[in-house]
Amino acid sequence: xxxxxxxxxxxxxxxxxxxxxxxxxxxxxxxxxxxxxxxxxxxxxxxxxxxxxxxxxxxxxxxxxxxxxxxxxxxxxxxxxxxxxxxxxxxxxxxxxxxxxxxxxxxxxxxxxxxxxxxxxxxxxxxxxxxxxxxxxxxxxxxxxxxxxxxxxxxxxxxxxxxxxxx
Amino acid sequence: xxxxxxxxxxxxxxxxxxxxxxxxxxxxxxxxxxxxxxxxxxxxxxxxxxxxxxxxxxxxxxxxxxxxxxxxxxxxxxxxxxxxxxxxxxxxxxxxxxxxxxxxxxxxxxxxxxxxxxxxxxxxxxxxxxxxxxxxxxxxxxxxxxxxxxxxxxxxxxxxxxxxxxxxxxxxxxxxxxxxxxxxxxxxxxxxxxxxxxxxxxxxxxxxxxxxxxxxxxxxxxxxxxxxxxxxxxxxxxxxxxxxxxxxxxxxxxxxxxxxxxxxxxxxxxxxxxxxxxxxxxxxxxxxxxxxx
Lengths: 167, 293
Fold this sequence. Notes:
The structure holds two protein chains of two kinds.
Chain A: H1 2-29, H2 32-48, H3 59-78, H4 105-113, H5 117-128, H6 133-140, H7 144-166
Helix pairs in contact in A: 1-2, 1-3, 2-3, 4-7, 5-7, 6-7
Chain B: H1 3-11, H2 23-36, H3 51-60, H4 76-84, H5 88-123, H6 128-132, H7 153-178, E1 183-184, E2 187-188, H8 195-200, H9 204-217, E3 219-221, E4 227-229, H10 232-242, H11 252-272, H12 283-292
Antiparallel strand pairs in B: 1-2, 3-4
Helix pairs in contact in B: 5-7, 9-10, 10-11
């Protein structure tokens, strides 16, 4: 009886969040095969940590963090994330992306998925989720400078891809 | 990047895509399996123990209940409380409260004893035997015992119980006093392998009891084979820490030194206990810590 109730409750949560969270997994991993794997792993983590949710902040935000961490763990484990360290604290030029307004969400997802894994992570964490470079550096175990420089390089690739789609 | 661009990226957070069908059932099956076998994982099916392994496990699982007292922590219960709550005062009051309760119990026992015994003497001198010999409530004496008119066997047993309680309280009090100091090889042992914590964790009167040992031997034992050597300056600080006025209260210097130790301890915790990267046993980390002071 208790297990049946639990299943019902968890299915409700699943119905509520699965679309957004699956999209998140796809954005981070870049392919459906890995997205399916990490989505399942993250769901199990979500279930086993439900009792740790203290009601502070939105449930979706809390669950999103679990899914993001699962994606990061998955990618760290399966793919060697190599970042070239930014040794000097030089000011990194931030070039604005132009022509984005013409793109729809499917296009954006496509150009993100075309990025190399390292860049894809930074773009997702910084541009989509809104984490600061400091937070990203702690999450990925890199320096803030490296995070900034990776984003700068990712931007230039993104710009090329955006221009290509807009042509 | 302008706000419009940011907004476009942020919209991706809300993007939703239906996951493949059957994923929920698959995940739920996995969760159920995990609940049935808590240690279960993907390798569960490949990790079924053989009969001999089951036997071995039953033998080795007994080790789970095996416990060994850590070095220098015969006072483990007190020590654990101190480690968990830095508010030593609370511990001190509890200790004092315990002592006060024991004293009250003792006083009550004596008062009860003196109130009842003289009356018996007055009323019936023959009944002295019943109060002085130890008669257990469960043992029936073989020879007849003369009992006074006001004395019932129940009253005698109550007196005996009170006396026993008094003795137990006394014994417990003595044991408490004995168990205060952790020692190894007749030298003071470190608490939680931490020199600073060892010094600040004691109340003044406790510290008095082993100050001379620390100062004379200039070392604090960590285990049977390893110890911390005290420099002359540090030994002087420990001496200052233990100095008392003629009335037994700590001197101003002692209080000041204790505050200094407590401050060091906080800095030490802030620097070393933050993460596993920094380690007081690492000479570079330690020198970094000392040089920053």
